[in-house]
Specification:
The protein contains four helices and ten strands, in the order E-H-E-H-E-H-E-E-H-E-E-E-E-E. The protein is globular. The longest helix has 16 residues, at 25-40. It has 228 residues and is α+β, with helices and mostly antiparallel strands. Helix 1 (25-40) packs parallel to helix 3 (94-103). The strands form four sheets. The chain has a four-stranded mixed β-sheet with strand order 2-6-7-3, with helices on both faces. Bound molecules: 2-acetamido-2-deoxy-beta-D-glucopyranose.
């Protein structure tokens, strides 16, 4: 089984910097919530999309890698999926990172399982990879990010288990939402959630999927988008 490694997108914006750049609890919640929001809203709909939950071990793993300040995939990531995002000067912008990853859907053809030539789709396909159910992310402020000329960059690393982007496979099966949930899972907001509780840990009290967060999905003006 081959896991493809998607190219990376670097976004450079202008604004202010947060000191060490660690994710706040709100940002962690937003990451899980937005993943699940986008997963619940895929078009065409998904029959087998699992609910994603935060995983502290993955988060620690992602954070440790972010702290190395390298612009490139973690070669030691093992059987973990990985999405990266970097932004200059401004603090981490979770909704923007998610929007950038999700935007790649425009270039992805689900029925053919292909990405338009010269485009990236790997962040999107990981985001909506049906069988991926654990996510952990870490962020770090890097005065110098190895592999990038710009300085003062906020790096976001998200790791996923099980990993997505298995070569030749579609991210999810098209069909009526939840019609192909694994046994023992129940349907909640068009996603297959594991019993006993899909709302454990960081997800507790997050009943507002589709609520206020959507208002934050406005893109600041981009200075540069580069492909690496
Ligand atoms: C997706 O790929 C299929 C098979 O190659 C093709 O028939 C279809 O037109 C494509 N859809 C889009 C939206 O390009």
């Amino acid at each position: 089984m081959h896991i493809s490694c998607s190219p990376l997108l670097l976004l450079l914006l202008a604004a202010t910097v947060s000191p060490n750049g660690a994710l706040s609890d709100d940002e962690k919640r937003a990451l899980v919530e937005l993943h699940n929001l986008y997963r619940a809203q895929v078009s065409p709909p998904a029959a087998d999309m699992l609910h994603m939950r935060w995983d502290e071990e993955l988060a620690a793993f992602a954070k440790a890698y972010a702290q190395q300040c390298v612009w490139g995939h973690n070669k030691e990531r093992g059987r973990r999926g990985e999405n990266l995002f970097a932004i200059t000067e401004e603090g981490m912008d979770v909704p923007l990172a998610m929007e950038e990853w999700h935007h790649e859907r425009e270039h992805y053809n689900l029925s053919a399982a292909t990405c338009d030539q010269g485009q990236m789709c790997g962040h999107y396909t990981q985001l909506v990879w049906a069988k991926t159910e654990r996510i952990g992310c870490g962020s770090h402020f890097c005065e110098k990010l190895q592999g990038v000329e710009e300085i003062n960059i906020q790096l976001l690393v998200c790791n996923y288990e099980p990993p997505g982007n298995v070569k030749g496979k579609r991210p999810y099966q098209e069909g009526t939402p939840c019609s192909l949930c694994p046994s023992g899972y129940r349907c909640e907001n068009s996603l297959c959630g594991a019993e006993p509780s899909v709302n454990s840990g960081l997800n507790s009290g997050l009943g507002h999927i589709g609520g206020p967060l959507l208002g934050l999905l406005l893109l600041p003006s981009l200075v540069l988008a580069g492909i690496f």
